[in-house]
Specification:
Radius of gyration: 18 Å
Order of helices and strands: EEEHEHHEHEEEHEEHEHEHHEEH
CATH class: Alpha Beta
Bound molecules: zinc ion
Largest sheet: 7 strands, mixed
CATH superfamily: Ribonuclease Z/Hydroxyacylglutathione hydrolase-like
CATH topology: Metallo-beta-lactamase, Chain A
Strand order of the largest sheet: 6-5-4-3-2-1-14
Shape: globular
Structural class: alpha/beta
Helix content: 25-40%
Strand content: 25-35%
């Protein structure tokens, strides 16, 4: 499994980072995890052919995680993609996505490739070799009542991936480290939201699970301004076990395991 973080900004636009997106490759399958603004150019810079993506997984519908999706689909259509693209979205939001895309003239009748919307649930890719397990988290709990008044569920998911004897947990946005702590303890690498979780909770998790490697992403501006100092402090205390993400950073899970 190889994970490339193509967008590592928080929900606040900044120069030098795109919004949330990551590419996960395993055995020829290529998953896009979230599709924040800037994802289309990130995939171009990675020289990804328009047929390369197997599926897109959307963890929640905050703009910084989903706003790049229609542009991505438009770009794939205009560059002649033909193979179907599976898009896994929070359960119950399929109709909303369909209406959103239709509103952008992404009509099934004329698109060069089928856009197939599915509920985000346990799925196997790469002929069964890659298992995706979505884990509901509490990121949107604080807007549950308001969301219900507007007729939408308050859903956000962390994503766990298993391939061979390697495992990866991508927190997406969470409400606190407790949302992912148990699953992190059973994972080789955790990619964690550094906007909604204080660094002290992240280092405490690293102390609890000494073999866990952690990459902090979703970097907010207040952390950015102090990032070099924090990175060097973490390096002296944890070596390469805790790192800050940057756009284009990649992690090879099997190699990470070999380093332990
Ligand atoms: Zn976010």
């Amino acid at each position: 499994m190889k994970l490339t973080l193509t967008g590592t900004a928080s929900g606040i636009p900044v120069a030098g980072r795109r919004h949330s997106a990551a590419l996960l490759e395993a055995d020829g399958s290529m998953l896009l995890l979230d599709a924040g603004e800037g994802v289309s150019t990130a995939l171009l810079e990675a020289a990804l052919p328009s047929e390369a993506l197997t599926a897109v997984c959307i963890t929640h519908t905050h703009a910084d995680h989903v706003s790049g999706l229609p542009m991505l689909l438009q770009g794939l259509h205009l560059t002649g993609r033909l193979s179907p693209l599976d898009i896994l979205v929070p359960t119950g939001r399929e109709d909303w996505f369909r209406a959103w895309l239709t509103g952008m003239y992404i009509f099934p009748e004329k698109w060069s490739f089928p856009v197939r919307l599915h509920p985000l649930e346990e799925t196997r890719f790469a002929n069964g070799a890659l298992r995706l397990l979505p884990i509901p988290n509490r990121h949107l709990e604080r807007v549950r009542d308001l969301a219900a008044q507007h007729g939408i569920p308050a859903q956000c998911f962390s994503l766990r991936f298993e391939h061979g004897d390697s495992s990866l947990l991508v927190s997406s946005d969470i409400a606190g480290i407790a949302d992912v702590a148990t699953h992190a303890g059973r994972s080789d690498v955790l990619v964690v939201d550094a906007t909604h979780v204080p660094l002290t909770e992240i280092t405490a998790l690293a102390d609890t699970y000494p073999s866990l490697r952690i990459v902090c992403t979703h970097i907010p501006p207040e952390l950015e301004s102090d990032l070099l100092r924090l990175a060097s402090e973490l390096e002296s205390a944890y070596g390469a076990r805790i790192r800050f993400a940057y756009d284009g950073m990649y992690i090879e899970l099997e190699r990470e395991k070999a380093w332990k």
